[in-house]
Design brief:
Blueprint: H1 9-34, H2 45-99, H3 106-128, E1 144-147, E2 155-158, H4 191-244, H5 248-274, H6 277-281
Length: 284
Amino acid sequence: MGTSLQTNMGAMSALQNLNATTRSLDTVQSRINTGLKVANARDNGAVYNIAQQQRSEHAAYDAVRVGLDRAKGIADVALAAGETISDIFTQMREKALAASDTSISATSRAAYNSEFIALRDQVASVIANAVFDGANVIGGGANLTFMANTTGTQTIVLPTLDLRLVTGAGTAVASPAVDVYLGTTDDLTTAALAATARDRVVASLEYVNSELSRMGASSKRLESHNVFVSKLQDAITGGIGSMVDADLATESAKLQSLQVKQQLGAQALSIANQSPQVILSLFK
C-alpha cells in the first residue's frame, strides 16, 4: 500500500497492540489487587461456578460445626454432672456402710443418716442444673440428634441418660434381680435399712458409671467428627484456592513485562503517527 494521509496502517496496528497490552495490564493489576485470578464469572464462568458452589458448601459446614459444638457442650455438662453424682454415691456408700454397723450408737447413726439424706437430695439438684442451651440429657427423655453433614442425611445421636433416683424406696431392676437402685426415700434410720441402702447405692453407682461411659463414648465421637469437619473445610478452602487464587510471584513478573511493553507500544504508536510527515517533503 502506498503512502496515504487518510489511512495510517502502521498507527492502527500499533494502537491495536497498545490496547491489547493495556487490557492485559489491567487484568494483571486486578489479579494483584484482589489476589484472585478468577474474581467473578466474567474471568472464567465454569471455574467461578465451581468455586461458588464450594464456598456455599464450606459455609454450610459452619452450621454443622455449630451444631456439633452445641452437642459437645451438652455432653460435657452431662458428664460433669454425672461425675458429680458418682462422687455423691461414693460418699453415700461410705455413710451407709458405717450406719449398717449394729454396734454404733443411735446418735452416730442419726448423724450418718442426716448426711446421707443431704447427699441423697443433692442428686436431684445436680440433675436439674445440668442444662446447656436448654438441653438436659441426664434427666430422662428422648435422645438428641445432630446433623453430621450439609444435607442432613447423616446424623450423630447423643443419648439421653436417666440418672434420677427412683421414686420412693429403691426398686428391683430387671437384671440381675438381686440388685436394686437407690430411691428418694431410702435412709439409714436402722442398721437393716442402712444395709439395704448400702446395696442400693452400690447398684446405683455401677449404673451411673456405666451410663457415663456410654455418654463419654458419644462425646468422643462428636469431638472426632467435629475435627473431621474442620479438616474437610480446610480441604475445601484449599481446593477453592487452587482454582481461583492468583500466583502473585508470576503476576508480579508479568506486570513488569507488560509495563515495559506498554511503554514500547506507546513509542511505536508515536513513531507510526509521525510517518505522514514524510508526505510534506514531497511538496517542497
